[in-house]
Amino acid sequence: MVLTRRSKVTIKSSVNDVVTQSEMQNRTQRRASKTRTRLLKAALSVFAEVGTDAATIEMITQRADLGKGTFYRHFADKSQIIGVLIEQCVGGLLEAISRSAGEPHSLQEALDGLVNGHVEFFLSRQEEYILLFQGRMLLKLDRGVACDIERPYEDYLRCVGELIGPYLPQPVDQVKFRRLACAVTGFVSGFLSFAMITMKPQSVRESIQPLRDAFLGGAISFMKQP
Description:
CATH class of the largest domain: Mainly Alpha
Number of domains: 2
Shape: elongated
Largest sheet: none
Low-confidence stretches: none
Radius of gyration: 24 Å
Structural class: mainly alpha
CATH architecture of the largest domain: Orthogonal Bundle
Distance between the termini: 83 Å
CATH topology of the largest domain: Tetracycline Repressor, domain 2
Order of helices and strands: HHHHHHHHHH
Strand content: under 5%
C-alpha cells in the first residue's frame, strides 16, 4: 500500500484528534476528581462540626462553595458520602494501628500498639476520628446493629481481632472484640477531647501514659477472662 501526501495528512489529523480527545478526557477526569475531593473535605468538616444527623447537603455544598447539582453528580445522597468518608477514615485508622503495633510478641504489646494507633490517628486526623466514633455510630458498633456503613467497621473489628487474637485463649467471643474496640475508642476520644483543649500534642502523649497503662492492665484482664 502506497501512502499519498493527502493520506498521510489525514492519518496525522486523525491521530491528533485522538490525542486531543484523550487530553480533554483527562482534564475532565482531573477536574471531576478535584470537585469530588472538595465535597469530601467539606462534608468531613461539616460532619465533625455538627454531626451526621444534623448536617445537610446544603451545608456541605456551601462549605465546598459548590452547587447542589454538582453534589448529586458525584453522590446519590448524604448517606453515600458518609459511607465513602467512613471507608477512607477506617483505612487511615487501620494504617495507623499497623504502624504503631508493628510485630507484637505479646498481648501487652498488641494492645499497646492498638491504643497508640488510635492516639496517633486522633492527634493527626481529628475530624476523621470524630466522624468515625460519634456516639451514634459507636453505639451501633457496640450492639452489632446492621447499618449502611457496617462493612468498614467490620473491617476495623477484624483488624482488632487479627492483632490481639493470637495471644488469647481460643475460641474468642466476638462480642469481646466489639467491647474492647469500643473501650479503646471511648478511652482515647474521652481523654483527648479534653486534653486537646489545653495541651500540645507532645504533652498529650506524655499525660496519657499513666492512664493508658492502667487502661491496658484492665483490658488485658478483661480479654483473658473465660
